[in-house]
C-alpha cells in the first residue's frame, strides 16, 4: 500500500526516529526524519508535510515550541506529540495548543517493532 501522505518524525533519539520511519515506510507513507526543531522547520519549509510526529522533550528545545511554530506556519499540518516523560499537564497543554493527539513512549524502539 502506498499513500501520498508525508509524515515528519522529530526526535533527538536516533533509535526512535529510525523505528518510526521504518514502520511508516513499510505502511506506504513517505517519512522524513529530523533530529531537532531547527532541522524540522527546514524540512517543513522545503516539503509538503501532512503530519508531524514530534517528541516532547529534546536537547535544548521542546515539541511544544515546534507545535506553536507549525500552527503559525501552516494550520493544515497535523501534530502528534510523543514523550517518555508524559504528565496529565503536558498532555492537556499539547492538546489545547493544537496537537491532534498525545502518546506516551512506553517501550524501547526494538520492542515496538
UniProtKB/TrEMBL annotation:
Listed SMART domains: REC (SM00448)
InterPro entries: Bact_response_regulator, CheY-like_superfamily, Sig_transdc_resp-reg_receiver
Domain named Response regulatory: residues: 6-113
One BP annotation, GO: phosphorelay signal transduction system
PROSITE patterns for this protein: RESPONSE_REGULATORY
SUPFAM superfamilies: CheY-like
Pfam families: Response_reg
UniProt keyword annotations, A-Z: Phosphoprotein
Protein name as annotated: Type 4 fimbriae expression regulatory protein
Amino acid at each position: 500500500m502506498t499513500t501520498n501522505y508525508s509524515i515528519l518524525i522529530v526526535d533527538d533519539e536516533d533509535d526512535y526516529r529510525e523505528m518510526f520511519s521504518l514502520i511508516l515506510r513499510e505502511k506506504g507513507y513517505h517519512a522524513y526524519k529530523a533530529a531537532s526543531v531547527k532541522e524540522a522547520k527546514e524540512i517543513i519549509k522545503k516539503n509538503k508535510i501532512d503530519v508531524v510526529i514530534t517528541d516532547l522533550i529534546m536537547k535544548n528545545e521542546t515539541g511544544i515550541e515546534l507545535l506553536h511554530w507549525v500552527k503559525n506556519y501552516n494550520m493544515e499540518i497535523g501534530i502528534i506529540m510523543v514523550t517518555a516523560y508524559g504528565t496529565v499537564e503536558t498532555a492537556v497543554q499539547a492538546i489545547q495548543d493544537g496537537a491532534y493527539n498525545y502518546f506516551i513512549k512506553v517501550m524501547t524502539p526494538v520492542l515496538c517493532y
